[in-house]
Amino acid sequence: MTVEPTASARRGIRKSAGERAFEICNGAILSLLALLCLAPFVHILAVSLSSSQAATAGRVGFWPVDLSLNSYQYATQNPVFISAFGVTVRRVLLGVSVDTLLVTLAAYPLSKTNREMPGRTILAWIFVTTMFVGGGMIPSYLVVNATGLRNTLWALVIPGAVKPFNMTILLNFFRQTPKDLEESALIDGAPQPKILWYIYLPLALPALATLTIFDTVGHWNEWFSGLIYMDKQVNQPLQTYLRGVIIQPDFTLLNQQQIELMSKISSKTYQAAQIMIATTPVLAIYPFLQKYFIKGLTLGSLKG
Amino acid sequence: MRLTKRLAALAVALTTLAAAGLAFAQGPNPLPADTPWFKPYEEPVTARIGASVNIAQTFPEGDSYSHNVWTRGLLEQLNINVDVVWEAPGGSDYETKLNLAIASNDLPDIILTANYAQFMKLYNAGKLADLTGLYEEYAYPVIQENLMKDGGQSLSWGVLDGKRMGMPAEGASMQQVRLVWIRADWLEELGLEEPKTMEDVLSIAKAFKDADPDNRVGMPFFKAVIGDGMCDIQGVANAYGAFPRIWIDDGEGGLKYGSIQPEFRKAIEIYADLYKDGYIDPAFASLDGGKVGEQLTTNKIGVIIGNSWLSSWPLNTLYDTDKVDWHVYPLLMSETIDTPVKTQVPDIKGAHVVVRAGYEHPELLFKWLNFSVAKTNDPLYAEPYAYHSDPPEIEHGFGYHMLNPLYVYYNDPMLNFNTQPHVTAAIDTGDLSSLTTAHDETQYANVKKWFDKVEAGEQPSGNDWNAWLSWYGPDSTFAIMNRYIADGSLVYNQTYGYFTDTMVKEWGSLTSMENEYVTQIIAGARPIEDFDEFVETWLALGGEDIIKEINEWHKAK
Q1: In this complex, do A253 and B56 lie within 8 Å of one another by their Cβ atoms?
Q2: Which residues contact B225 (CB under 8 A, 6 or more apart)?
Q3: Which residues form the domain of B18?
């Protein structure tokens, strides 16, 4: 790796006025953007912790008004919410493992040259094509139905298990691993699976961590397949349920008893509480994988 | 469908005010098992159904849409074994799910179509059982009677090529018509007179805004042509003799489309002027019912044109928090019109209940529908506790009519309307004999609560206020709607959800073009003269064919 004097290296010595102005602007704009991303989240958190009257009247900004935990209590007592949460957790665990396995097994051979792996270009193109052309909702449904996946957890996992985008990232990562390592293993007589397991995968950990995050978030947030492949609410994942709760107006609940009920727990604070509960696990994963995440994304620049 | 479902739910909610029980007991009278309407099957018969559900619905421990008071009741009392094969949230999700079932040829036995187009699609594909004769034989007379109250009009939509292929799932809802709501306290504060014409209503809205221009919205508005029961152009349009988005009599035995008539141009112009003068929220295109509800409860709005349910949401909340009372007026005619104002009844989707072709027990549909009506609203067979609430039900937050996997009730369309004179008479005279239905009694109790609290000098709750404003006296919402009916001033869509072939293809894009033009003209992005361009484009892009087809269909009837 050739060492070049970078901006940060020079910073220790002296900064020009222009550089400083640039950094201040940069910092300000980025902080503003970060705040923009944070604001809705804080607002939802505040709403979820407020009394329903305050939330319905729109008096809640970024700080809870009339602090109340009723909505959280209500949400965690709702059996449908709990079962949907369970479906999502199982789906993420199963989905991410299956995806990672399949993506790795697809990316590794395709990372080889055409000489080592005859037909890899054609195969790679077949994978890439699916990024741009889909089967459409009804044909996909017919396939899932005919293969007996409908109403099983696998319907949420198998149809999108091999994500060509993730595969391409991993494939390129494998390619950037020095060839010499593989060759030395070959000389020692290691078969390909062993080479993948002991050489390529440990070196690809940053990429795998990145893909795991993409995949976890993807599985966590996906709702549409839950709607079309799962016939009963008890089998539907959290986001399918939440979407139903949020887009469906509470007008349907209007009779005298329900109005009284709703006035105690306005759907607004209730929805906010459910959103908070649903978002937290994904947020919790980020800090742990973040260091890999950054490394993974900037991996192209590390090559010497 | 989302809207329809919401309104239908509301209508039924107001109608039945049902409470819940863990199981149907036999009512005051057992269902007569020797009649064709309620004769149980000898052996359990399975009926598969896809249910349109409310995701937020909560159930007692162990219950769900697939297993609840209805499925148990149908099994115990009629030997019908309900098998809910799938559940989908009402609206577009339900429509998608049913489309998938149609595409994979995996239809349930009893099907509630989302709209008329799906009904036609199933019929044209030969997937529907012929119900000719079954309705007359198996439908409970109360249902037949209730369905004849509109002259049998909605019933006739389910007859295709002379055969009964489906039952209408919704009637034109006379309850979903527009009313003018004005804040009583602001009216008094500014010393304004009560409105006599639509022009008065608009100037009151302007005066309210002018009194506190930074905090108030003049005329709440968010959906260009037809909204969710409030804040659209419909109320003002009706006042100027325009009937957007529906087909009306052209006076020569044919039908014409309301949105392309010159009267509608006038209504759009009024809104464009309101916008130009700052009386419409400039962010109107991004508003929705929830946000307008928020503006209402935070004292930003003083005039709103909307349906009778406004007092049960969100104005009751405002009454609770700030004791704000509202006056309700019928749609007032414009000074420029010399005929009495007519009010349009919202269009329906034309949803139908049908039976899959090849199902062995097509009459089962009627037994189920009979059971639904008998158990909720029939004075003879309704459950004794159906109309009374007590704490366990409030905890679970549901009325049991909401849990029926087949959400179709043929109730008396006049039930709510009749309650108003009954309750008013009972309050005024103290003679309770005028209360003839359980619904009357429930509402009487609520209104009585309002009067008792006022007398005792207490603050009535928003719900008491809602009952009082809905049912008591000549200025109540239902009294006004009763006058609409008595005066014959309701205008219905003359196609009742019927779709021609060209409409199946083009209607979606034509209506969105209509919304676009109207929105742009109101927002000042186009001059009002572009209304003529809209009409030309509309006619050229299929409108002309549709007019021809609609009129052929109309004359053939």
Answers
A1: yes
A2: B232, B233, B234, B244, B245, B259, B511, B514, B515, B518
A3: 2-172+348-403
* Domain's final residue, options B446, B465, B491: B491
- Minimal Cα–Cα distance from B334 to chain A, Å? 32
* Three-class secondary structure of residue A275 per DSSP: helix
| Tally of domains in chain B | 3
Any chain A CB within 8 A of the CB of B90? yes
ipTM of predicted assembly, 2 dp: 0.74
Chain A residues whose beta carbon lies within 8 Å of the beta carbon of residue B100:
137-138, 141, 228
In a domain, B191, yes or no: yes
pLDDT bucket at B150, cuts 50 / 70 / 90: confident
B530 vs chain A: nearest CA distance in angstroms?
A: 35
Does some domain include residue B161? Answer: yes
Quote the CA–CA distance of B181 and B331 in Å, as a whole number. 10
How do residues A15-64 score in pLDDT, each as one tens digit?
788 889 999 999 999 999 999 989 988 998 998 888 776 776 667 888 88
Give the best residue of B100, B106, B288, B444 to mutate against chain A (max A CB count within 10 A): B100
Contact criterion met (CB < 8 Å) for A232 and B294: no
Q: Does the pTM exceed 0.95?
A: no
Long-range contacts from A140-145, C-beta under 8 angstroms, 24+ separation: A141/A228, A141/A229, A141/B100, A141/B103, A141/B104, A142/B103, A142/B104, A144/A229, A145/B104, A145/B106
Q: Region A137-144: what's the mean pLDDT?
A: 92
Residue A252 belongs to domain with CATH number: 1.10.3720.10
Q: Is residue A20 part of a domain?
A: no
Domain membership flag for residue B410: no
**A184-233: per-residue pLDDT in tens?**
899 999 999 999 999 898 888 888 888 888 898 889 888 899 999 999 88
Domain count, chain A: 1
Asked if residue B254 is part of any domain, the answer here is: yes
What residues of chain A lie within 8 A of the CB of B321, using their CB? 53, 57
B425 and B395 part of one domain: no
Q: Which of B17, B85, B295 sits opposite A256 (nearest CB)?
A: B17
In three-state secondary structure terms, B40 is: coil
Interface contact B66, partner A, CB < 8 A = yes
Q: Are B342 and B115 in contact (CB under 8 A)?
A: no
Q: Is B105 on the interface with A (CB under 8 A)?
A: no
Chain B interface test: which of A144, A255, A263, A268 (most B C-beta within 10 Å): A255
Return the number of other C-beta atoms located less than 10 Å from residue B504's C-beta.
13
Touching check for B107 and chain A: CB below 8 Å? no
